[in-house]
Amino acid sequence: MHLKKLELFGFKTFPDRTVLRFTDARGITAVVGPNGCGKSNIIDAFRWVMGEQSIKLLRGSTQEDIVFAGTESRKPVSLAEVFLTIDNSDHALPIDYTEVEVGRRFYRTGDSEYLINKEIVRLRDVQELLMDTGIGKGSYSIIGQGQVVSLIQSKPDDHRKLLEEAAGIHKYKFRKDATQRKLEAAEQNLFRLSDIRAEIHQQLGPLEEQARTAGEYKILKKDLAGLEIGLFKVKLGKLDAFQQEVAQKIAEYKKIVDEAEMSAQDIAAKKQEFRGRIVGLDKQLAEHDARLQDLRRQKAESANKFDVAHERIGNHQQRALAVAQELVQLEANKTALLARQNEAQTELLAVEKSVAELEERLAKKNEETRVVVERWQVVNQEIAGLRRDLQDFFNQVENKKSKLMGLESGETMVAGDLQRIETSLTDFAKEQEELTLREAALQERRIFVDDNVASLHARRDELFKQKSAQEEARRDKLNRRTTIKEKFDQQSSRLQLLDELQQTHEGFQKGVRAVFQAKQDNVPGFAGVGGVLADIINVPKQYESAVEAALENNLQAIVAENLGAAKEALKHLKDQALGRATFAAGGLLKPTEKINPPRGICALDIVSCEERYKDFVAAFLGAVCIVDDLEQAFSVPLDGLSMVVTLAGEVITAQGLVTGGAVGKEAESVSLLSRQREIIELRHDIAGYTAELAALDAEIKDSERLGGQIEDELKEHAGKLKHLEIEQGTIANDLARIVIDCGKLEKNVAASRQEVAQQRGEMDRIAAEKQNLQTLLAELTRQKEEKEKIIQNRESDLQQADSEKTTVNELLTEIKIGRTNALAAKRQVELKLESCRDNIQQTEKQIAEKKLEQENLQKSIAEAENVLQSSQKILPEIDQQIEQALAQSTTANQERARYFNDLEVYDRMEKERHASDREVRAKLSEEEIKMARVEAEYEEMLRRMSEEYNLTVEDALRTEAAVEDYDQTQDEVEKLKRRIKRMEPVNLLAIDEYEAQKERLLFIEGQCDDLEKSKNDLLNIIKELDRAAIEAFKETFAVVNEHFRRIFTALFNGGEAELHILDENNVLESGIEIMARVPGAKKSQSMSLLSGGQNALTAVALLFSLLSARPGPFCILDEIDAALDDPNIGRVTELLKEYAEKTQIIIITHRQAMMSVADVMFGLTMAQKGISSVVSLKLPENKEKALLEA
After folding, report:
1. H helical segments located in 950-989
2. What is the pLDDT of residues 431-443, one digit of tens each?
3. What InterPro entries does UniProt report for this protein, alphabetically (predicted)?
4. Cα–Cα distances in angstroms (integers) from residue 1012 to residues 184, 187, 191, 635, 1006, in the given order
5. Strands of 79-87's sheet, edge to edge?
6. What's the whole-number mean pLDDT along residues 98-114?
7. Is 791 helix (H, G, I), strand (E, B) or coil?
8. Bigger pLDDT: 1023 vs 761
9. Which of 53, 49, 151, 149 is CA-nearest to residue 100?
10. Contact 815/361 with Cβ under 8 angstroms?
């Protein structure tokens, strides 16, 4: 895998589409250019396209900063996009393409896109594609400007992240994070399913009871359906018989109407015939009119043609004279052109001769020029060889100077180290004192944190108890609300049913229902009709049976304001055969004087009603005595009483008749008085339930709010605990580190004293080596000066050869110019000759066209004369045809008037027939209305069968339901209905709900088991991922540490360095500390004690040790040489060449020493302010020479 191409458009200083092609899979590519030309924008483009989100790291303040903002001469662009093409032939990237293009776009509107092979994807897809390849966001494969030293000076945790990238454990962490999210989701689902399971257990008990009731209810409904279907079959038979009778009458009337319609059809046929003839005559008249118009049009056209032909003959004759004159002029022009053609041919022969002479001179002079140029090339090549020798001397001199500078730098470094060591001895004493004070402070802080952790744990336990109590209280309230809601729904259903029965007067006689239906339909005469006696009185519950027994059927007596209203209602019932009813009419009903019985009470005393109905009620109950039981009733004298009734409903009349016994529950269920009372009680109960539900909802809401507060406090405590526990770990680590640092300090003091002696010996060695280098440098300088003198002498020879070459070239140029002028003159003559030939051809063509025009004019004149003669002949014929058409039109108009008269006669006959037909149709309409009523009743029965039992007529007739006694069957139906109503409301869905809840409970329990198993599996996966990550980290750490020691020693020409894991027990979270001892130092030191150059060189060592452990497909380095001097750059370039054999390296630099190792260079310039442009250069094998010449 390697880079193939980077394409930028609109990104920072690249407004034009810019492409950088990386042709080699290995080697070094350098991006060079002056400061401020946009080199670092190349690094930013690499980071950005691979998913970098930190705008600060991209050296901007907002996302819009990456889009080209425009200059004084260039408008801003609307988007920025970067595409990175990667060769994936080895399938290192997990995608089935041998070439992968990763892209990113950002629009100035704020929208952005990520692309893989032109397909829009998510940021996560790009990150997963590049994960653990060594080239992802934040990897060590891309080192930006100023980031080299930060590799060393960053925190230990950041050092660990570099090792993680090299170890390739991001995939483990990614999978671990995903697994932990799944684990949290599984635990949440398990908690939620436990609540659901508890709730289902609570619901199953009530549902089981409801399901049992629903089963019994369905059986009763089935029995009721069988009886009602039998009644439907009987009613259908009666309706069929009546329907046949009406259908016979309708057929007779229709026969009379059909005969009348036959006569009407004859009249209509005659009328249609006359109308058809009139239409035909209208059509003839229209044709005659059209014919007249056409003839008049033809006459006008013929006259117009005559005039046009006459005018055309005159015009053509004039044009023929003009054409003849033009032909004479064209013949004269042709003669002149032929003369000019002959002159041009003579001139062309002379010019061709001159060109041939110049060509001969040019060939001779070319030979002379070749000899001079060859002599110049020999001298030039000799000078080039001398220059190469001079460059070798120059390189040797520079190399020795570089070594001398290195020795001087080393001498200065050693002197500085001596001073630094002496200073560090003083600092070590101070540092020991600071560590002691810091240890005491940390111990005090640890005690404080431990106390807070214990306090928070206690408060958390208390909150968990409060939360448990709150959830238990909330569940109790929810259960109570469910119970009350069920009662509320039952009572509401019951009230709705009773209201419907009350409104439809269910349980009343057919005649009573018919009277109230008529009043509801606003039938005239029913305004004075009031309610029934059962509706206008209120009776306490314990007296209902007694009052119902006293009133019996009079409970359904209809109260009328006057006798007229009662008569009108009775007449309506009789006329419509709607049944019978009893009326209590005002003015006719005499009130009974209220009695005061010796035992018991008067029924009138316990019944209440409105003032206007008191006389009606007194007439029925004024002489009724109510006692407790039958024994007491027999002891009451009957004088002045109409009857004595007991609380159980037993009756003794004034005539001595005794009525008693037991009544069934079916009779009790249709009590009209109890229904009215029950409606009032139900409304009162429902109001109470509504208030109680509202109160419970408020309590539940308060409980949920309290639960939310507890949950928020728990989360807050969890955050504090986590923070404190982290702080506990940090304090423990810091204390352990202090112990380690104290031991190190003691070692450092001893090592520093020993290092002083070593550094003084190093100073003496450097002084001797400097003396030798200075002597050698003087000799090399002398040899270089001799070579320069030789080159000066040969350059004077080259100047003389240059002068000869210039003279010969000038003469050669003069001859070439003469030849060019001659050739141009020849071309002019040829063009002149060609023009003459073209003009002659054009003139001959015009002559032919004029002759053709003469012939066409003669033909047109002849055609116009023919048209003139034809028009003079046809005009009289057209006038004769016009007279004939006018005569035909007059005849057709006369015949049309005669048919109109016949049509009026038949219209009068049709009106007479309609009068006799109306009477028959009225009778037919009456019978059809009867038929419609029968059909409506029939349809109503079908609708009821369909809606209540989902049966058609055929289905009902096929059933085995039979009715032997119609009235008895009706009674049985009413008893079943009352029994069913007593059971209502019934939750018919309870059976299915009960089974569904049982199945749901089994399913939930299975889900819980699965989640428990899944939870255990996820915990095992996390453990396995941690184990694999630790193994990979430790293995990579060992390899990187080994390479770090080797490369550090090579770069510093000595010294030693290593990496330390701060917490061996928790390597995945532990920081990594870097320790180094530069040459001349006696002990390992912290990075903060090293100089800037030493820090930079150590960072380079760490970077290349990471690349050695896990080479990436490419590495991009931005000015890593900024803090290095020339000798150190030489060592770094050697490393670069070594690693370029394994991977693709891209460097951004402006140092010549770094450029010298590049195989390909991209030069960046900023010809226009704010706009970067790129040029590429493939360097030859002699790169040093190419760079010097450049």
Report:
1. 953-958, 966-983
2. 777 777 777 787 7
3. P-loop_NTPase, RecF/RecN/SMC_N, SMC, SMC_hinge, SMC_hinge_sf, SMC_prok
4. 12, 9, 11, 82, 10
5. 18-21, 2-9, 79-87, 99-107, 112-116, 119-121
6. 91
7. helix
8. 1023
9. 49
10. yes
Task: Answer yes or no: CATH 1.20.1060.20 is held by domain 510-669.
Answer: yes
pLDDT of the residue at 146: 62
**Contacts for 1088-1096: CB closer than 8 Å, 24+ residues apart:** 1088/153, 1089/420, 1089/424, 1091/413, 1091/416, 1092/149, 1092/1123, 1093/1123, 1093/1124, 1093/1125, 1093/1128, 1094/1052, 1095/149, 1095/152, 1095/153, 1095/1123, 1096/148, 1096/149, 1096/1120, 1096/1122, 1096/1123, 1096/1124, 1096/1128
Task: Give me the sheet containing 558-560, strands edge to edge.
Answer: 529-532, 558-560, 583-585
Name the phi and psi angles at 1011, rounded to 5: -65, -40
CA distance to 82, 547, 670, 685, 980, per residue, from 682 (Å): 77, 22, 17, 5, 19
Q: 1115-1170: per-residue pLDDT in tens? A: 888 887 777 777 788 888 888 888 888 888 888 887 787 888 888 888 888 878 88
Residue 697 is encoded by which pair of tokens?
């909802």
Q: Are 128 and 1101 in contact (CB under 8 A)?
A: no
Residue 580 CB neighbour total at 10 angstroms: 12
Q: Is the peptide bond before 985 cis (omega within 30 degrees of 0)?
A: yes
How far apart CA 943 and CA 956 sit, in angstroms, is 13
End-to-end CA distance of the chain: 33
Q: Which of 463, 472, 468, 351 is nearest to 828 (CA)?
A: 351
- Are the beta carbons of 1127 and 5 closer than 8 angstroms? no
- Report CA dihedral (628, 630, 636, 637) to the nearest 10 degrees: 150
pLDDT value of residue 667: 41
For 200, counting Cβ atoms within 10 Å of its Cβ (0-12 exposed, 13-18 middle, 19+ buried), the class is middle
* CA separation for the pair 725, 717 (Å, rounded): 12
Q: How far apart are alpha carbons 894 and 591 in whole angstroms?
A: 93
Total count of residues recorded for the chain: 1190
List C-alpha distances in Å: 785 to 370, 382, 385, 782, 791: 35, 18, 16, 5, 10
Cβ partners under 8 Å of residue 793, min gap 6: none
* Burial class of residue 1081 (count of CB atoms within 10 Å of its CB; 0-12, 13-18, 19+): buried
Across 44-48, 89-93, 484-488, 916-920, least confident range = 916-920
Are 41 and 18 contacting, i.e. CB atoms less than 8 angstroms apart? no
Give domain limits for the chain: 510-669
Known binding residues for ATP are 34-41
Query: What are the b/e assignments for 408-427, b being 16+ CB within 10 Å?
Result: ebbbebbeebbebbeebeee
**Quick check: 1033 and 1068 in contact, CB under 8 A?**
yes
CA–CA gap between residue 360 and residue 815 (Å, rounded): 10
> CA–CA separation, 681 vs 540, rounded Å?
12
Calculate the average pLDDT of the chain: 78
Count of C-beta atoms within a 10 Å radius of residue 316 = 18
Query: What is the mean predicted confidence (pLDDT) over 1162-1189?
Result: 66
Which residues, 6 or more positions from 829, have their beta carbon under 8 angstroms from its beta carbon? Answer: 344, 347, 348, 351
Mean pLDDT (whole number) for 596-605: 87
pLDDT in tens, 396-414: 766 666 666 666 666 666 6
Q: Is residue 13 within 8 Å of residue 1164, measured between CB atoms? A: no
Q: Which residues pair with 1060 in a beta bridge?
A: 1073
| Rounded-to-integer distance, Cα 685 and Cα 491, Å | 8
Q: How many CA atoms lie within 13 A of 590 on its CB side?
A: 3
**How many Cβ atoms are within 10 Å of 572's Cβ, its own excluded?**
19
With a CB cutoff of 8 Å and minimum separation 6, the contacts of 1081 are 417, 421, 755, 1055
State the binding site: 34-41
Give the closest residue to 57 by CA, choosing from 158, 140, 137: 137
Q: Do 1071 and 159 touch, CB atoms closer than 8 A?
A: yes
